[in-house]
Amino acid sequence: MTKIATRVAYGEALVELGQKNENVVVLDADLSKSTKTNGFLQEFPNRFFNMGIAEQNLMGTAAGLSTCGKIPFASTFAMFASGRAFEIIRNSICYPKLNVKVCATHAGITVGEDGASHQALEDLACMRALPNMVVLNPADAVSAKKAVFAMAELDGPAYARFGRANVPVIYDEDFVFEIGKGVEVKEGTDATIIGTGILVAEAMEAHETLKAQGINVRVIDMHTIKPIDKDIIIKAAKETGAIITAEEHNIIGGLGSAVAEVLVENSPVPMKRIGVKDTFGESGKPAQLMEKYGLTAAHIVEAVKDIVKNK
Amino acid sequence: MQNVNIQQLQEVATNIRKDIIQAVNAAGSGHPGGSLSAADLLTVLYFHKMNIDPKNPKMENRDRFVLSKGHAAPVLYGALAERGFFPKEELLKLRHMGAMLQGHPDMKNIPGVEMSTGSLGQGFSTTIGMALASKLDKIDNRIYTLLGDGEIQEGLVWEAAMAAGHYKLDNLTAIVDFNGLQIDGRNDDVMTVSPIDKKFESFGWNVITIDGHNMEEIINAFDEAEKTKGKPTVVIAKTIKGKGVSFMEDQAGWHGSAPNDEQTTTALDELGGVK
Description:
The structure holds two protein chains of two kinds.
Chain A: E1 3-4, H1 6-20, E2 24-28, H2 32-35, H3 38-43, E3 48-50, H4 55-66, E4 71-77, H5 78-84, H6 86-94, E5 101-105, H7 123-128, E6 134-136, H8 141-153, E7 158-161, E8 167-168, E9 183-186, E10 191-195, H9 199-212, E11 217-221, E12 224-226, H10 230-240, E13 243-250, H11 255-266, E14 271-276, H12 286-292, H13 297-310
Parallel strand pairs in A: 2-3, 2-4, 4-5, 5-7, 6-7, 10-11, 10-13, 13-14
Antiparallel strand pairs in A: 1-8, 6-12, 9-11
Helix pairs in contact in A: 1-8, 4-6, 9-13, 10-11
Chain B: H1 6-27, H2 33-36, H3 39-49, E1 64-67, H4 73-83, H5 122-136, E2 143-148, H6 155-166, E3 172-178, E4 181-182, E5 185-186, H7 187-190, H8 196-202, E6 206-211, H9 215-227, E7 233-238, H10 261-270
Parallel strand pairs in B: 1-2, 2-3, 3-7, 6-7
Antiparallel strand pairs in B: 4-5
Helix pairs in contact in B: 1-3, 1-4, 1-10, 3-4, 3-9, 5-6
């Protein structure tokens, strides 16, 4: 299976977008080689602003550009975008509902060797709590690229999360990315795994493993964390009777929390959450960390079996 | 300085000061001290310097002003109301539930407000984006922002100052309302920010220091800023917090408290009384 990092797709999408729309501008904070915005820099140097290692001013400047009709894509690592610049995103972008796209790469534990200080595991929770903010977490390179195009069409603030590590490509090029619509990627009736980001691929692998054991689980790619697709969650709860969420994020405040909110208010069913269990990460290879922190297909399989047994 | 009637500008500034007192009194809370100190600066911008149209607040290629010290909202609201962006009656509904005039500037609902501000340093940062956009689109307009001298203790201010110098944003003028006081007392007692001029200079700014209550000096400074090419200009305007109301002048206590009815009457009398 082809593996591509979602950040690579992000960089390619920006170049395509830049050709189509001259209002698109890109800002970075001395990380353009890592965030992959350097492709845009080469094509459109006039529309690229390196703001230096100053993430707060990166967001403020993006806000100012947007008031003059530009569509700024403000890029840095997820930790610094959602963490260090949080209040600027809140007050200068979300409160006035400005057309700024915060694009955060190197999210999650799979940033690996850099360790806990760089492993953003709370960004989805932080961004989800902001009024007006749309929160996207694409699962693969195809979906990442389409997420960028969809964001550009949207009039208002959006946050998108991209990863550093190479991950399987699960969609083909004609995949339609619609903000706010979850995607059923595998059919099933015994339980539903709702995954987001790179855990969608793990969930699909879990689906295959379980199928061989006679358990048919539905798999949903929830690429939009906010607004969350309530309909697809309620339908899955009613039709399969059990939900397992899976995310490369703290177990508190991200996808699992968002899904739980929908379930308890609409259609309560047994639920389990796969995620980092309210702890910081550590240095290591991405695969080792996924294993240690309980984020692999095997962990999902165990959770599904447990929930199906007790449903 | 041709065709400028200084006396008329002074009258406008006095009216804005009255607006501030009445609005904050009606609200029962708000920030009169740092609003009164900036009244002369905003008067020159809104009644002499800026290319704006109250009937068309979103006019293309307009000059833009961002109140980075957003708590001084009453002076901005006073200037906008006096200039005709919205009816003066709105001033007396300041900070009331359901009113247009929020405690801090809200760009979505108040005509003429270019950026929502209130968290210090953020307004200044957004003007970097506005100035860059004008450069990119080759628009010959000017961007102005007013900072408090306490505000410049925020790290974000220096990130923005660095970027403005780096990108040689000569269409940007920052003004520091240098009244020497912040909530907890004198700036230099709370956290030393001086020398402000040398800090901006070292980030590549043209620095002009003036008396922020002298109309001629304010006008001359903005004219010089406009003529200065290749670097942004900061106007360090020495002001008196609470200027125009004797019992408020140079008192940190009037940073964020509203005058009662009696104090309001006294203040308005000092300002020449209500027309």
